Amino acid sequence: MPLVKVKKYCQITLPSLIRKKYNIAEGDYLEIEDKDGVMVLKPVKVVHREQAYFYTKEWQQDEAEADKDIAAGKLIGPFDTIEDFAKAMES
Length: 91
Hints:
Strand content: 15-25%
Largest sheet: 2 strands, antiparallel
Pfam family, one: MazE_antitoxin
Low-confidence stretches: none
Order of helices and strands: HEEHH
Domain SpoVT-AbrB: 4-49
InterPro entries: SpoVT-AbrB_dom (IPR007159), SpoVT-AbrB_sf (IPR037914)
GO molecular function: DNA binding
Number of helices: 3
Protein name: Looped-hinge helix DNA binding domain-containing protein, AbrB family
Oligomer: single chain
Number of strands: 2
């Protein structure tokens, strides 16, 4: 198990094997958790508030359904004009 040293301002350097294994890069966030006296670091991805809807269960279910429809060829278009699009939407 790699050993790290706490440096000035309580900073630590994660060993390169750990960074590579967990795909951690400069600027990434880690969550620290106390589990019965053991510190556990977990990589986390921060989502902008404006994009949070995309990660909801409902949105992801709809995305999966859309992917199935696309794979099954259930689509229309592309259209050359907005009029062609409007006609397709009316039918």
